[in-house]
Predict the structure.
Amino acid sequence: MLAIIGGSGLTQLANLDVQRREMVRTPYGEPSGPLTFGLICNQPAVFLARHGYGHTIPPHEVNDRANIWALANAKVTQVVSVASVGGIRDGLKPGTLVVPHQIIDYTWGRKSTYHEGPGRPVVHIDFTEPYDESLRRRLLKAAKLAGEDVLDGGVYAATQGPRLETAAEIARLERDGADMVGMTGMPEAALAREMGLPYAAIAVVVNYAAGRGDSIHAIHFDNLQDALQKSMVRVRRIIEHVCQLPPEQP
Ligand code: HPA
C-alpha cells in the first residue's frame, strides 16, 4: 500500500475515497494526525498531513519518528512525500515540480533516529542514495503518463526553520550544491530508510529562495496560495497515476 505524506497545501487528498481514519499510538508519541485510509483509483492508499489537518505543526516540531512508525505499523510498502520548497538553482521557478535525488541536511536538534536509548546497539544505515531509485522512477513515469512536466533529480537542502533563510544562507546552500530548500525533508527520509520503507519525494517549488528572482528583497508567501493550489492539483494527478502503476522491476 502506498502512503502519501502531504505538506503545505496538501492537507487532504481530494482524490482519496476515504474509508476510515485511525489515530495511531506509537512508542515515539503522537503522529501529526490520524492516518486516513482509502482508495485512490481503486488502489488502497493512506494519507497523513505532515503539519496536521489544521496546519498547526511547524516543521521543527513535526514528530517524524511517530509519523514513519505509524505508517510502517500500517504495513505501507512505499512512502511518497510531498513537500514545498524554495527554488535556488536557475530554472527552478515557482510552479516547477521536482523529484529530487539527493539531500543535504542542515537541520539540528530533531529526533533523527530510532536507534538510540540505553542498551541499544549502535546502528549506521547506508544513506548514500537517500531516495529509493525505483520509487523515483515510478513517480517520473507517473508524471509522464499524467502529462505533467517534472524535473528528474535535484539536491534538496533541509533547513531547520521555521524562519526562512537569509540571502547569504541561500548563496551558501548553492555553493554547497543545493538546488532547492525546504524544512521537512529530514529526518523523515532517514527514518523511512531506518524502517526499511522505500521513500521518494515530489518537491513543489512555491517561491524563489531568499535573494533570488522576485524574492530578491523578501519572500511574499501571501501571494503564493494560488500557485500552490494549482501545483497541488498537478501533484494529485501524478499520485493517481502512481497508484495505478505496477512496481518497477529492480
Ligand atoms: N525555504 C525553506 N523552506 C521552504 C521555502 C524556502 O524558501 N519555500 C517553501 N519551503
Helices lie at 64-73, 133-146, 167-176, 188-194, 225-244. The CA atoms of residues 12 and 86 lie 22 Å apart. The first strand starts at residue 2 and ends at 6. The first helix runs from residue 64 to 73.
